């Protein structure tokens, strides 16, 4: 670890001498902790980072929007698949291919879990959040049980025991709470050796004039470098080498907050493998032209995600011959990568990723040492996005899935217009009710009234339904023949014990 004098010299040389302004006021333990934090900074590149952040923020505030219109085009049909419109035989073939790869232990899942649940009103990792399901399961537990089930399904189909390793990218904020949570819950039945947690880098928040922000007298305001920090973290933590040792060739990457995510989805994996893709994206059809989601498309023949604000309204409203939106592929941060592509990114492309500017309200201490909570943005956080690597793909494919089956993000506390715990809970329960009805069960509400569930029924249609099916019983609606002819009165939880009782 560098000495205090070495750190002081480096800070002075990068124009950040103010960072040690309150050093004499700190106790010995605080000084020791602060010194450890400072030693972890990339001090040789600190000046460059601060200058680049200030310049990028200034440029973003005055630069005209880039004009993408002349070069904008949708993903070509040969690179698209859809659970709604693709040939059923193709869908079945893709699923078989996916199960084959899973059965050979060639598929891993990688969770992006570096953020806290601040917007949810909690200070612990989002994966530990309970949205209020009848079972009380957290997002982490639901996802772990889906891994267990997909392993079991692959083993049953192809007769060979397999493993789907779970890689979890955390941050300084989420690593220890996540490790403790998994230990306290016996890793939710998974082998601890098949769960690999690793940290992404933290970078300092910077003022508009390029100065590192002090969160406290002995603490820098730090933030994860965005989910696109994945690629640097893969290198820092030797994750790709671990994948190679395990024989992993294909990686399913997703965000922690989607309660409907299909872990190691065999259909998606098989689709990408069958198409010879090095990179894949799941998308949902945009709800309407102005929906504020990024769109997977091409710019000048190069695949990328274009922000909704960069597409003119008249372009967003364009429709095809069947009435469908031309630019309809809404990005949901659900991706496929080959390990070799990730290796190429780490070795060749990661330093070409351009950070995005985020202006934030960052609490700080002023020159007198007073704590200040700003009411307006006062700081710059530079972050990268996981999809920033799309332009480097030699063969990117896109699979459109049903929103009500695969996408319900958890971002805001209840009371917000969307993406709340109630919305996520209701989306999952409505899905499970559809599964039960499709299996031949008769559904009753709490008053004993019959409920008709249509294939497209959503949480908005039946917000009070409480039929929960454990992932250990069914991964995606399969294996529910035991419900045929049964009458189910909600609330109802179909777990292993309930399934055994119904079969008795």
Automatic annotation (TrEMBL):
Residues 61-86 are annotated as: Disordered. Pfam families: UDPGP (PF01704). It comes from Xiphophorus maculatus (Southern platyfish). SUPFAM superfamilies: Nucleotide-diphospho-sugar transferases. Keywords: Nucleotidyltransferase, Transferase. One of its GO terms (molecular function) is UDP-N-acetylglucosamine diphosphorylase activity. One of its GO terms (biological process) is UDP-N-acetylglucosamine biosynthetic process. This is UDP-N-acetylglucosamine pyrophosphorylase 1, like 1. The keyword Coiled coil does not apply. Belongs to the UDPGP type 1 family. It comes from the Eukaryota.
């Amino acid at each position: 670890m560098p000495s205090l004098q070495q750190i002081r010299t480096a800070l002075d040389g990068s124009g950040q001498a103010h960072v040690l302004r309150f050093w004499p006021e700190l106790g010995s333990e605080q000084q020791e902790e602060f010194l450890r934090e400072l030693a972890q900074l990339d001090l040789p590149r600190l000046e460059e980072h601060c200058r680049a952040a200030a310049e990028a923020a200034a440029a973003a505030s005055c630069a005209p929007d880039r004009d993408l219109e002349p070069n904008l085009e949708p993903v070509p049909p040969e690179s698209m698949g859809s659970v709604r419109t693709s040939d059923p035989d193709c869908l079945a073939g893709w699923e078989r291919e996916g199960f084959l790869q899973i059965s050979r232990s060639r598929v891993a899942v990688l969770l992006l879990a570096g953020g806290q649940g601040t917007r949810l009103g909690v200070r612990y990792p989002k994966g530990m959040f309970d949205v209020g399901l009848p079972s009380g399961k957290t997002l982490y537990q639901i996802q772990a049980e889906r891994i267990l089930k997909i392993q079991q399904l692959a083993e049953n189909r192809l007769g060979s025991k397999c493993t789907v390793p779970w890689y979890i990218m955390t941050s300084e904020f989420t690593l220890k709470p996540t490790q403790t949570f998994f230990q306290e819950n016996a890793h939710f039945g998974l082998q601890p050796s098949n769960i690999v947690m690793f940290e992404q880098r933290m970078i300092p928040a910077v003022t508009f004039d390029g100065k590192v922000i002090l969160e406290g007298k002995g603490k820098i305001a730090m933030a994860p470098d965005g989910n696109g920090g994945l690629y640097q973290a893969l290198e820092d933590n030797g994750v790709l080498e671990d994948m190679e040792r395990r024989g992993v060739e294909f990686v399913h990457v997703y965000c922690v907050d989607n309660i409907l995510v299909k872990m190691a989805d065999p259909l998606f994996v098989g689709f990408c493998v069958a198409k010879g893709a090095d990179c894949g994206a799941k998308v949902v059809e945009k709800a309407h032209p102005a929906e504020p989601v990024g769109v997977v498309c091409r710019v000048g023949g190069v695949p990328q995600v274009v922000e909704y604000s960069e597409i003119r309204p008249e372009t967003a409203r364009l429709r095809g011959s069947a009435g469908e939106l031309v630019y309809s592929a809404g990005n949901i941060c659900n991706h496929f990568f080959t390990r070799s592509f990730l290796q190429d990114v780490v070795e060749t492309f990661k330093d070409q990723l351009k950070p995005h500017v985020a202006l934030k309200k960052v609490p700080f201490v002023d020159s007198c040492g007073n704590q200040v909570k700003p009411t307006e943005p006062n700081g710059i956080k530079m972050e990268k996005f996981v999809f920033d690597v799309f332009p480097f793909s030699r063969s990117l494919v896109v699979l459109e899935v049903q929103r009500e089956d695969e996408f319900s993000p958890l971002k805001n506390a209840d009371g917000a217009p969307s993406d709340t715990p109630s919305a996520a809970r209701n989306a999952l329960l409505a899905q499970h009710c559809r599964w039960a009805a499709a299996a031949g069960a008769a559904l009753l509400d709490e008053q004993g009234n019959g409920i008709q569930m249509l294939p497209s029924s959503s949480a908005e249609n039946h917000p009070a339904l409480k039929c929960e099916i454990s992932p250990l019983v069914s991964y995606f609606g399969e294996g529910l023949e035991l419900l045929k002819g049964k009458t189910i009165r909600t609330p109802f939880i179909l777990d292993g014990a309930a399934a055994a009782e119904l079969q008795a």
